[in-house]
Amino acid sequence: MTWNYRVIEDKEIFRIHEVYYNDAGDITAISEDPIVPEGETLEELKDDLEYYFAALKSPELKKEEIKFASLKEDE
């Protein structure tokens, strides 16, 4: 399983969520609430913000169009 941050549009509002994928690269789950940047050190906060910038480079997802796949490919 892998994850990344993605921009998700929900009711015309754009927010960043964690998105989880199975081994086939299909979405299996998203975080219920948007993610806020954080870190235990300033360096960790900077690193976390880099994930946000990467999310802005990926196409946004529309929450109502997300099709959730099984965690395992064969289910």
Quick structural summary:
The protein has 75 residues and is of the alpha+beta class. The protein is 21% helix and 32% strand.
Report what the structure shows.
With 75 residues, this protein is an alpha+beta fold. It has one domain (2-65). It is 21% helix and 32% strand. The mean pLDDT is 94.
SSE blueprint:
Blueprint: E1 2-10, E2 13-21, E3 27-30, H1 42-57, E4 61-62
Parallel strand pairs: 1-4
Antiparallel strand pairs: 1-2, 2-3
Strand ordering within the main sheet: 3-2-1-4
The number of helical segments is 1
Q: What number of structural domains do the residues give?
A: 1
Strand segment count: 4
First-last Cα distance: 15 Å
**Residue runs with pLDDT of under 50 for 5 or more positions:** none
Question: Gyration radius, to the nearest Å?
Answer: 13 Å
Largest sheet: 4 strands, mixed
Q: Would you list the SSEs in sequence order as H and E?
A: EEEHE
- Quote the average pLDDT: 94
The 3D shape can be described as: globular
Helix/strand/pairing category: alpha+beta
Q: Please bin the fraction of helical residues.
A: 10-25%
Strand content: 25-35%
